[in-house]
């Protein structure tokens, strides 16, 4: 073979490697906010793990309770104030007007025409999977604590259900819209299921 052929082969390989680098970068760019994605799951999964392993690790109920409630509080704050806004473009909060009346505000980021989707599909899946699955696990823990008569753990589990359920409710309201839209969506879904049967 001639030296020119080997030079061509090297060029082909380098172009192939460049294509691989581009595809690797596009795969990595699917998660635009890796730190937010990590902390979206970290606090909530950590609270569940601590709850499950607490009696094995220590005999102090107070230490376990404080740790779990701190993790749940950090999760509530991070999901409500940071990860929801960054990962899916949703946010909710309570606003008190001058008259002292409380108003709940549920917002969804408007999608720009030229920008397309502002959040990636992978981040959206991570967000909703964590947001829906973990409160369901805390509900299972609540029934387990209730039926096994672990009354002291019931308060901790109720905190898990309330804090993670509040975020779930708030983000569903952001995604779907007002309460009227939420009830009409449920009615339409049940009507379609009835007609199918």
TrEMBL record:
GO CC field: Golgi membrane
InterPro entries tied to this protein: TVP23-like (IPR008564)
Family per similarity comment: Belongs to the TVP23 family.
Compartment(s) where it occurs, according to its Swiss-Prot or TrEMBL record: Membrane
Gene Ontology BP annotations: protein secretion; vesicle-mediated transport
Pfam families per the UniProt record, alphabetical: DUF846
Membrane keyword on record: yes
Keyword Cell cycle (UniProt): no
Alphabetic keyword roster: Membrane, Transmembrane, Transmembrane helix
Protein name in UniProt: Golgi apparatus membrane protein TVP23 homolog
PANTHER family the record matches: GOLGI APPARATUS MEMBRANE PROTEIN TVP23, GOLGI APPARATUS MEMBRANE PROTEIN TVP23 HOMOLOG B
Organism: Tychaedon coryphoeus
Membrane topology of the entry: Multi-pass membrane protein
Listed transmembrane segments: 34-53, 59-79, 126-147, 153-172
